[in-house]
TrEMBL record:
Keywords: Apoplast, Secreted, Signal. Dirigent proteins impart stereoselectivity on the phenoxy radical-coupling reaction, yielding optically active lignans from two molecules of coniferyl alcohol in the biosynthesis of lignans, flavonolignans, and alkaloids and thus plays a central role in plant secondary metabolism. The keyword Cell membrane does not apply. This is Dirigent protein. It comes from Hibiscus trionum (Flower of an hour). Homodimer. Its main location: secreted. It holds the Pfam family Dirigent. It is found in: Secreted, Extracellular space, Apoplast. One of its GO terms (cellular component) is apoplast. Belongs to the plant dirigent protein family. Residues 1-26 form the signal peptide.
Length: 184
């Protein structure tokens, strides 16, 4: 009789433990930042329109800086920029980055990006939508990949920016290390 009580008691705790374990793992997704399901590096090239370089420019200021501070606060730039696999501006683009950024900090250069990477090649067809703060003074910055279409259907992840080159306000190049944690 006593051993039956002990056994049923053990069984009760075993069931409790197993059910708790399963209910936790069913609601919590375990994502390891070091293990994206897809990862690739692309380089972004932005050439700001200067008034007489229509053929070469890839972006243009559509609202000027406001004069609040001296870090371009309020300046809005719309871009249609080439994305290349290596750092060369003239390498064949594998995607386009279309969207905008604006400067949003009074005391230092800081921008906010929202854009779509558009892939239209034999390798990839589809889009990735990316947005977030570009704190230019940091060596690397993480922006959110908030969604995707086509080959990137329902994707989510992180795009890590790193400034590779900067020629005043005329040209800059960013490394974008794109890591997806949801792939379908
Ligand atoms: C286009 O702009 C880039 C960046 O400023 C510059 O390096 C390049 O020489 C320009 N190309 C032409 C054809 O003007
Ligand atoms: C922005 O300001 C500069 C310098 O004051 C001027 O040359 C340019 O035309 C302005 N651009 C716009 C879009 O207002
Ligand atoms: C994608 O590429 C094809 C073939 O070059 C072209 O016909 C089509 O218009 C392109 N689509 C977009 C959205 O750029």
């Amino acid at each position: 009789m006593r051993s039956l009580v002990v056994k049923s008691c053990c069984l009760f705790f075993l069931i409790l433990f197993v059910s708790q374990h399963y209910s936790v793992s069913a609601t919590k997704k375990l994502l390891d930042p070091k293990k994206p399901c897809k990862r690739f590096v692309l380089y972004y090239h932005d050439i700001l329109f200067g008034g007489d370089d229509v053929a070469n420019a890839t972006s243009a200021t559509t609202a000027n800086a406001t004069g609040l501070g001296n870090t371009n606060f309020g300046m809005l730039v719309v871009f249609d920029d080439p994305m290349t696999k290596d750092q060369h501006l003239l390498s064949p683009p594998v995607a386009r980055a279309q969207g905008f950024y604006f400067y949003d900090m009074k005391t230092t250069y800081n921008a906010w990006f929202a854009y779509t990477l558009i892939f239209n090649s034999s390798d990839h067809k589809g889009t990735l939508n990316i947005m977030g703060a570009d704190m230019m003074m940091e060596k690397t910055r993480d922006l959110s990949v908030v969604g995707g279409t086509g080959d990137f259907f329902m994707a989510r992840g992180i795009a890590t920016f790193q400034t590779m080159n900067q020629e005043g306000t005329k040209y800059f190049r960013l490394k974008m290390d794109i890591k997806l944690y949801e792939c379908y």
